[in-house]
Design brief:
Length: 434
Amino acid sequence: MKPVKIGVLGLGTVGGGTVNVLRRNADEIARRAGREIQVVRAFARDLNRSRICDTTGIGLTDDPYSIVNDPEIEIVAELIGGTGIARDLVLKALDNGKHVVTANKALIALHGNEIFAKARAQGLMVAFEAAVAGGIPIIKAVREGLAGNTIEWVAGIINGTCNYILTEMWEKGRDFPDVLQEAQALGYAEADPTFDVEGIDAAHKLTILASIAFGIPLQFDKVYIEGISGITRLDVAYAQALGYRIKLLGIARRTPAGVELRVHPTLIPERRLIANVNGVMNAVLVKGDAVGPTLFYGAGADPTGSSVVADLVDVVRMLTSDPDNRVPHLAFQPGSIADIPVLPASEMQTAYYLRLSAEDKPGVLADVTRILADHRISIEAIIQKEALADESHLPVILLTHKLKEKELNEALARIEALSTINGPVKRIRVETLG
């Protein structure tokens, strides 16, 4: 059979990694797909810069629309990123009858409902395995491998930059600004790291995971998001003393009242495997009612390219299949997507780590515990540190049992109003992931 011709939009880290994998494993890929896959054209903003891939035989252009309008190209791999021109190009490719593969988590999280609707109307496929967790085949695992399960919850370390920063803070006792600067120098963090360190990137990925796990529409705007910029080395050290590690987690949990969607720093018991995923690595823990907990682990540039190529192989295999019998984009048949409510942050339930700066005098801790008792908040552990010689306040660390966020908010408002408490109370959520 004649080769399938593809066009690649973007030759950065992921695009270059994709071309490398396609070239290096061309024969094996053809054996799996049933046809050769050829990159015939590629878009790059700067045609003269050096690249991580060999572009010999690939027609380079700085006009991306010339690729999506090329009648010879059957599949477009959108690897530009962002939600501006990328959205326009994907919709145009679908209008032109081309299948799409993308690694763009923001595009899918924010515009996936629109994109998938157009693809279904055109009888086309949009594959997006590489949009979540690099080289980990988590989309396929949840959508297909765990199709016999009711997914109870998903918890993931899904941003390598944050995981690197928190690992350095834990291993070396370093401060957040210092590690962030190093991460930028090493290329792990962007010059503007907001999307990473404030949890937005992870929230994009969680939006996608939740949709395929629970059969709900993509709803990025309903994700509770909190980043790691407020985490201090003291919090990391106190967590360790209590037997926990701090990780930025994306958590999607099914409850009788609705679905929790949240991204935030989280204390995890150090005995959990996911608590020991360090550096720039990603990991996703999925709990199904039949299979139990399953852990997926990996990361990297070529691994992300691997996921793009796996999607290309899937699309090539399915080119001649009946569109109505393909695997649904979001795991569930389009008419079965459920309008399960997403809970507001105030209704979410978890345990908490609390750090107070309390005046060093008798009765202060009793006042705090009395307020917690008034709100029926039970305490699992307390650490009280000595004040330094030149300080009048000392740190007090509390671990609570599970409760609703709104209940904690009411109690903390009273605690922070005490004249013996200095400043706001630091809170970090706790998940046992049992």
